[in-house]
């Protein structure tokens, strides 16, 4: 059965989760700066945070504690593992480390690819540590299976990133709708680039919506504008110069 933690579930219901994950190796890739992004997201009305890496998670948790803002934090680690394509919180040791670092919710890859640890075993480990489990999936079948195994949330994070899943410009709204109909608490995540995308996900049944790149990766945001400006100049033949 899903872990109860009603206060966390109630806090996230119907809201925006800000994914504070900088471009690795970029100028904002410093735990203290990620913590500032987290506080800025809360100032904007985010109801929860999603943070990758133990160092960033510890910094964010410390900043929240110092500011007296006990919002739910979803923690994860990303790591390439030999022999598997699973890279979001692949090992039970990662689950334990994230719980120790202060994660209220632990996100993990719940795809049906060859994996180091079965989905159900990962969920049980998360619950045993007093946290909630967020299953990051790419298909309806994966989401339904994770929900049946006790995942507290099912996120559409990996749709479009796993071979054979829809490569669409925005969020996979059809997957959101199908998982919502199946009874899962669906977190719409992946390519939510605009407020309209977020609203559309909620309209299709998303329990909550996660936004990341559009908020916490200024390098990528600026690049999108640069590419658009360059494309416009090319299409007009440099008119006005």
Model description:
The protein is α/β, with parallel strands linked by helices. It has one domain (6-235): TIM Barrel, CATH 3.20.20. The protein has helices at residues 6-12, 31-43, 54-67, 92-100, 119-128, 140-148, 173-181, 195-203, 213-216, 218-235, and strands at residues 16-19, 48-52, 73-76, 105-109, 132-136, 153-155, 186-188, 208-211. An 8-stranded parallel β-barrel has the order 1-2-3-4-5-6-7-8, surrounded by 7 helices. β3, α4 and β4 form a beta-alpha-beta unit. α2 crosses α3. The radius of gyration is 18 Å and the shape is globular. The model has no long low-confidence stretch (mean pLDDT 93).
Could you write a compact summary of the structure shown?
Helices cover 42% and strands 14% of the residues.
Q: How large is the count of helical segments?
A: 10
Largest sheet: 8 strands, parallel, barrel
Q: How widely separated are the two ends?
A: 65 Å
CATH fold node name: TIM Barrel
Number of strands: 8
Strand order of the largest sheet: 1-2-3-4-5-6-7-8
**Count of folded domains:** 1
Essential attributes:
241 residues; alpha/beta; TIM Barrel; eight-stranded parallel β-barrel
List the helices and strands and how they pair.
Elements: H1 6-12, E1 16-19, H2 31-43, E2 48-52, H3 54-67, E3 73-76, H4 92-100, E4 105-109, H5 119-128, E5 132-136, H6 140-148, E6 153-155, H7 173-181, E7 186-188, H8 195-203, E8 208-211, H9 213-216, H10 218-235
Parallel strand pairs: 1-2, 1-8, 2-3, 3-4, 4-5, 5-6, 6-7, 7-8
